[in-house]
Structures are given as structure tokens and as C-alpha cells.
Please model this.
Amino acid sequence: MTSTKQVIEITQAAGFHINEMMEHNEEQGSFLRVVVNGGGCSGLSYGMHFDQEKKEDDFEDVQHGLTILVSREDAPILMGTKIDYKQSLMGGGFTIDNPNAIASCGCGTSFRTAKREGTPEVCE
Model:
């Protein structure tokens, strides 16, 4: 059974851009799934995608009109993570601040934690 729990925080700016992307990609009504994948320069990498299905072990939270899903397996790694959207002269993009990450790569999407290192890959 899906349970309600805030694992990550989505800022208002990030929520605005994610909602825009949902509309642009005709994904209204989908869920935003935030995941941890193996790989990347530091061993683990973040992922976000639109999903149509909740899984039984998901944690669910609603922020800025978005239903956010995180699996029970990924929740301890992502607990307290803040996802923001920053705009600069060179363009914009999502930033992820994970208090559980003890090392990260310059790319900003690869990291490792004290309890989970993953499998690092060669950066290109």
C-alpha cells in the first residue's frame, strides 16, 4: 500500500517547470517519480520521470500540484533532498541538494552516500 510521506522537497520554481513539462509532453495526471540509479561518475545518479502507476511500496507526497513518488528502497538515500530549478545567463536546469551525499561529481547528477556507493563509471 502506498504511504504518504515527504521524502523530497520540490521548490516552487522546480514545481512550475515540472508542471510546464507535464503539459508540454501531454502528461497531465501522471506522477513524478524520483529515483536513484546505479552508475555515474560517483556511483549513483538521480533520475526523474513521469509515471502512470503507483507501486505498493511507494511513498507519495503532493507538492505544487504534483504527486511525487519515491520507492521505499530509494527513500533513505533521498530523505531530505531538495530539488530546485535555477535560471542563469547560460540557461536553466534542475539542481539537487541531497544531505545524504558524501561525494558528488561536477556534473551534479552523480553522487554516493555513506551507506551506498553504487558502481562508478568513467566520466565522459
In short: The radius of gyration is 14 Å. The helical segments are 12-24, 75-78. The mean pLDDT is 85. The CA atoms of residues 40 and 110 lie 5 Å apart.
